[in-house]
Write a structure and sequence with these properties.
Elements: H1 5-24, H2 29-35, E1 39-48, E2 53-61, E3 67-72, E4 84-89, E5 98-101, E6 104-108, E7 114-121, E8 138-139, E9 143-147, H3 148-151, E10 153-155, E11 163-168, E12 180-182, E13 185-188, E14 198-202, E15 205-211, E16 214-220, H4 228-246, E17 253-260, E18 272-276, E19 279-284, H5 299-306, H6 322-339, H7 345-360, H8 381-405, H9 412-422, H10 428-439, H11 444-452
Helix pairs in contact: 4-5, 5-6, 6-8, 7-8, 9-10
Bound molecules: zinc ion (ZN).
Zinc ion is lined by residues 303, 307, 326, 329.
Length: 466
C-alpha cells in the first residue's frame, strides 16, 4: 500500500491541532508550529517474508534541531536491535549525512523535517539463549508478534504526545495492540511506551469482553486441547479477582497474546510468560491438557496480569527489588488461582510443597541470597528458580509476619495496594516505610535478613499450620 506524504502531513497537523485543543481548550495552529514538541510517525512493512525482513520508516516533524540522535534499544541481557541499511532523507528527498556516535545514529538534519528508514531481520538465532526474554518478536508463515524495542529506533528528542504507527504486515486478521488501534494504525500515548509496545498481526483468533470496567482481549493462535472460550473464561476469573484485590486497574484495556512455546526439550522451561505495560504474552506448552485449565499452570495468567501492578504501576529502578517484583507476584498468583476457584486447596498445598522442596534442593541456596538471584539468564534454571521460589517463600513469610504483628489486620496485599496508590518508586526503604505506615512497626531487619543472607533462618522454619 502506497502512502501519500501530503495526506500524512495533513493528518499529523490535524492530530497535533486536536491534541493542542484538548490541552488548552482553544489555540491557534501557529502555537503548534512554533512551540510544540516534535511529532513522530512510524510505519512498519513486511518487506521480504521468506527472509524475515521488515522495513521500518520513521518521520520526524517539527524538531527544528540540527542533529537528531536515534538510539537502538538494548538491554544488558542482549537482544540489541541491529538496523540494516540505515539512511535518512530531507524534505526534498536529498540524502542527509548520518554519523554513528556511541551506538547512536546521529542525523544532520539542517533543522528540517526528515525521514529515516532501515530493515530489520526478525530472526532469533538461538532460542535457547538468554535473549528469549527480550526477543519475543517472532515471525511465522501466517502471523507475527512484534515488540517495539526489537524494531524501533528511539529518537533522542522530547516528543509530542501520541505516536502514530502504521503496520503493513498480514492482510488477513486484524492488527492487535494493547493501545487504541484502528485498522492498520495504532496510536501510542508516548515515547515511553514505544520499547514495550506489543503488536500481533495475522492468524490470531480474537475474544474481547469488558471485565470490571476494563476491556480485556485475547488473541490466540494455534490448535489447543481446549477451546478459546474455555481459556478466556479462566482469564476472566483471574482478571476479576486481581482487579478486586487492588480496587482498580492501571490501564483501561489489556491484551493477552497466547501462542505456542517455541523452546523445547532438556533443561528448558515448558512455558514462558512476559508482561509489557498493558500487553501480555503467554507462550504455553503445546502439549498442555484441557484439564490444566484448572491447575497451577494457569498461574502464568495470574502472574503476568499481576505484574500490571507489581512491576508495572509499582516500579523499581534496577535489579535490587527483583525478589519482590517476582516473588510477591508468584505468591499472589497462586493465591488468586485459589480464590478464583481455579485450583483447590489441595492443589495449592501440593504446589506450595513443590516450591519449598525445589528451594531447599537449590544448589545456590548456601551461597547466593534471594536478593542477588536473578532471572536475566534464563539458561541458568537454578538461578531463576532461586529467585522465584525464594521470592515466593519470602513473600509468604512477610505476609505471615504482617498478619501476626497486626493480629490479622494488615496483610501483604494491603502493602501492595498502598504502594500502588502512592505511586512511589519501589526500593527497600520505600517498602519498609509503607509497612511502617500500615503496621507502625519497623520490619527493615526482618526483610534485610531474609533477602540478604544465603539460606536465611526464617525460611528454614516449618510453615505455620493454618
Ligand atoms: Zn514475573
Amino acid at each position: 500500500m502506497k502512502t501519500d506524504q501530503g495526506t500524512i502531513l495533513k493528518e499529523l497537523i490535524l492530530i497535533a491541532t486536536v491534541l493542542l485543543l484538548a490541552v488548552s481548550g482553544c489555540t491557534r495552529f501557529e502555537a503548534y508550529a512554533n512551540d510544540a514538541d516534535p511529532f513522530l510517525f512510524y510505519s512498519v512493512r513486511l518487506k521480504d517474508h521468506s527472509l524475515n525482513v521488515v522495513e521500518v520508516k520513521g518521520r520526524i516533524f517539527g524538531s527544528g534541531s540540527h542533529r537528531v540522535g536515534l538510539r537502538p534499544l538494548s538491554s544488558c541481557d542482549g537482544g540489541m536491535l541491529e538496523p540494516i541499511g540505515f539512511g535518512a532523507i530531507g524534505p526534498d528527498g536529498d540524502s542527509l549525512p548520518v554519523k554513528w556516535i556511541d551506538d547512536i545514529y546521529v542525523v544532520e538534519t539542517k533543522g528540517s523535517d526528515f525521514t529515516y528508514s532501515y530493515d530489520v531481520v526478525l530472526t532469533v538465532e538461538d532460542r535457547y539463549s538468554p535473549e528469549i526474554r527480550s526477543m519475543l518478536t517472532f515471525l511465522d508463515r501466517d502471523r507475527c508478534r512484534l515488540l517495539g524495542k526489537d524494531i524501533f529506533l528511539l529518537p533522542e528528542l522530547s516528543l509530542a504526545e501520541g505516536i502514530i504507527i502504521d503496520f503493513d504486515l498480514f492482510p488477513e486478521g486484524e492488527l492487535q495492540t494493547p493501545w487504541s488501534t484502528n485498522g492498520t494504525r495504532t496510536l501510542l500515548p508516548s515515547l515511553d511506551d514505544l520499547p514495550l509496545m506489543m503488536t500481533v498481526s495475522g492468524d490470531y483468533r480474537l475474544i474481547e469482553e469488558q471485565i470490571g470496567g476494563i476491556a480485556v482481549r485475547l488473541a490466540i493462535a494455534g490448535e489447543w486441547s481446549f477451546s478459546d472460550r474455555e481459556f478466556f473464561n479462566v482469564i476472566k476469573r483471574i482478571v476479576s479477582e486481581e482487579i478486586a484485590l487492588f480496587g482498580s486497574a492501571p490501564h483501561d484495556q489489556y491484551l493477552f497474546v497466547c501462542d505456542r512455546n517455541p523452546i523445547k526439550g532438556g533443561n528448558k522451561f515448558e512455558y514462558y510468560g512476559a508482561h509489557f505495560t498493558a500487553g501480555m504474552i503467554l507462550l504455553l506448552d503445546p502439549h498442555i491438557d484441557r484439564s490444566d485449565l484448572f491447575g497451577s499452570k494457569m498461574a502464568i495468567v495470574a502472574h503476568e496480569f499481576f505484574h500490571s501492578w507489581n512491576g508495572g504501576a509499582i516500579r523499581s529502578d534496577g535489579e535490587d527489588m527483583l525478589w519482590f517484583i517476582e516473588g510477591v507476584t508468584v505468591y499472589f498468583s497462586y493465591q488468586v488461582l485459589l480464590d478464583a476457584k481455579i485450583i483447590t486447596r489441595t492443589q495449592y498445598g501440593r504446589r506450595y510443597e513443590s516450591v519449598r522442596k525445589r528451594y531447599f534442593d537449590n544448589p545456590y541456596l548456601g551461597t547466593v541470597t534471594i536478593g542477588s538471584s536473578g532471572n536475566s539468564d534464563l539458561a541458568d534454571k537454578d538461578m531463576v528458580n532461586l529467585l522465584y521460589d525464594g521470592g515466593f517463600l519470602a513473600a509468604e513469610a512477610l505476609d505471615n509476619e504482617l498478619r501476626e504483628i497486626t493480629s490479622g489486620r494488615v496483610g501483604l496485599i494491603d502493602v501492595l495496594r498502598l504502594l500502588y496508590e502512592t505511586g512511589s518508586t519501589l526500593d527497600e526503604p520505600t517498602l519498609v516505610e509503607a509497612i511502617e505506615e500500615l503496621c507502625h512497626r519497623d520490619l527493615s531487619a526482618f526483610i534485610s535478613t531474609m533477602i540478604h543472607t544465603p539460606s536465611p533462618e526464617i525460611l528454614v522454619e516449618p510453615p505455620p499450620v493454618s
